[in-house]
Amino acid sequence: MGELSTATPTETLDVLGRVCPYPLVLTKKAMEKLPSGAVIKVLCDAPASAEDSIPRYAEKQGFKFESVRHEGYWELYIQKK
Amino acid sequence: MATKKLSFIVKSLPYKTEASRLALTHAIASQTVEIYLEDGDMVEPVLAFMGDGVLNCLKDQTAMNLYGVTSLEQHIKNSLLLDLKVIICKEDVEKFGLSEDALIMDAEDIGGETKASIAPFSEIMKEMDSSDHLLFF
Lengths: 81, 137
Description:
The complex is a heterodimer of chains A (about 80) and B (about 140).
Chain A: E1 11-14, H1 22-33, E2 39-44, H2 47-61, E3 64-70, E4 73-79
Parallel strand pairs in A: 1-2
Antiparallel strand pairs in A: 2-4, 3-4
Helix pairs in contact in A: 1-2
Chain B: E1 3-10, H1 19-29, E2 42-49, H2 63-67, H3 72-81, E3 85-89, H4 90-95, E4 117-119, H5 121-129, E5 133-136
Parallel strand pairs in B: 1-2, 1-5, 2-3, 3-4
């Protein structure tokens, strides 16, 4: 467990059941509304989004990112710069 | 650093083909491509319904019951939820004898803040003129 995944998130976004590209675009939209330093927890069960597009988005934006894999879904933690 | 404007023009009837569904999914997906672009490069999508395409915007679609497929209504609402610019051609709305009440104008029920607009064809032409790429469906 990393630093972000043990912190209390500012917001939780549930995109379970949503397929690509919705998890990413909904995450982007939620991040735009958060203040700097806030942490969002994203619940996602779409592999392409959880393992590729959302981590790539976080990296491109310079946001801290952590992923915790569970059976059938991921918890993604992103901290806004 | 540049913004590329893409206009997705929907002229096809709903459900007769997959064309309008493709337009909606491509317009929505265009919001994700910036992760593959150079820093600062952006994509600005516009979704315009004209001709027979305005019928895609009718409320209370029951596609799952009739055709066993997901409703385009939900896709249009998702577009608004994701703040896409959605324009419906005023002249064609009038041609079909429709009113704003019959059309999907917002996505408030799923938390959307952006509203669709009914605008004259001249406004859609302006959007098309200022676009880098036009995609017809």
